[in-house]
Amino acid sequence: MELLPIKPLDGLAAPLPTPLERLRLTPALSGAAGSNRAPASATRIAAADDLAAVTAWLARYADSTATLTTYRREVERLILWTVLQVGKPLSSLTHEDLLAYERFLADPQPAARWVLAGSKKLARGHPDWRPFAGPLSPSSVRHAMVILNALFAWLTEAGYLAGNPLALARRRRAPTRARITRYLSHDLWETVKDTVAAMPTETARERRHAARCRWVLTVLYLGGLRASELTATPMGAFFCRRDGQGIERWWLEVTGKGNKTRLVPATDELIAELARYRRAHDLPPTPQFGETRPLVLPVIGREGGEKPLSRGALHLILKEVFGMAAERLRARGPEWGAQAAVLASASAHWLRHTAGSHMTDQQVDLRYVRDNFGHSSLSTTSGYLHSEEDARHEATQERHRIGWIRKA
Which residues belong to any copy of the Core-binding (CB) domain (predicted)? Predict the structure, then answer.
């Protein structure tokens, strides 16, 4: 095997893992003559080796950055394991090899070769980069194997592989879906809101930062959006239409997982918060149709030419808020330490789970929660069911509120 130059590691004779895009394999490990390769006449893709075949599969997910990143990570780990640890190409893996790999995921050894030292995430080009942050949990192992099964199934269907070595895996009964635990209780959610309401507003920058934190929490909670949806949606995605009785209702059009579009009820409360946030930036209270400004605006910078907030920046904003809320709890006394730790570990997706949990607590119809959150694809005829959508809007507005307390 031929790898790009990497810093040697004491005590490890084998080369260190290399990111997929920098990996160079010898002919024996390239898969050009893998034992599970299908006859050339059956191949329906133009891949001559394993890396090219895997690249063709990953290209199918180029329109979804999050999915592509996840799938590349799992494929990368498998290829690095099979060439470094097993000494055979991907297209020669057997069912027994993949059982061994499944066990490896739960405990990647030797750790010095496979596991990142420390908690700081490193760039893929860094010499100390590793494909693992630590052992995978049982659920993460299952998820990884599901992804790899999809890979092998596609390569088999494409005529690149003669068979799917994971097709022989024992069919396990689907586990009962675990109850969502990563969400904030009503009391913790009130603590977060109180924390934001108490943020300093002495300077113009502080006022805009506080307004941004409040808006981010509001739209994630009232809209139940994913982080990727928040960062990708423009202000112009809000629109108003009249129902059959002439009542104006606001909606937010969101494109989520699988490039599927859904309509999220924009309640009166959400529209009022949108107006409040826009006024903080000296903008008209309601966005114009087709407005390209991102949902979250920069604290400083030229108006009108804003770039969308990155997911990393969103993560930092929320970590600051949750961190301040955790400190607020710790100040009450040591008995609040456990609750503070929960807050400190929260993330954007916790707010989505929090919104869903609070909606069901308020007995919002589960069908409406499902459609608000985009948990299942909409049927072809759903676009015509305006009366049902209006009932969903009314139920969401009546029972799902954020309840900001205005400062005197």
Answer: 48-156
The alpha carbons of the chain give a radius of gyration, in whole angstroms, of 25
**The tokens of 197 are what?**
């309401």
List the strands of the sheet with 261-266, edge to edge.
238-242, 248-255, 261-266
**Can you give the residue range of the structural domain that contains 246?**
186-399
- Residue 118 and residue 150 in one domain: yes
β-partners of residue 254 are 262
Kindly state the DSSP code that residue 289 receives in the 8-state scheme. T
Lowest mean pLDDT among 46-55, 79-88, 174-183: 174-183
Same domain, yes or no: 354 and 209: yes
Helix 138-157 to helix 95-106 angle (10° resolution) is 150
Indicate the range of 57-66, 225-234, 295-304, 339-348 predicted with least confidence. 295-304
The model's pTM is 0.57
Question: Which residues are CB-neighbours of 7 under 8 A, at least 6 positions away?
Answer: 16, 127, 128
Distance of alpha carbon 43 from alpha carbon 37, whole angstroms: 9
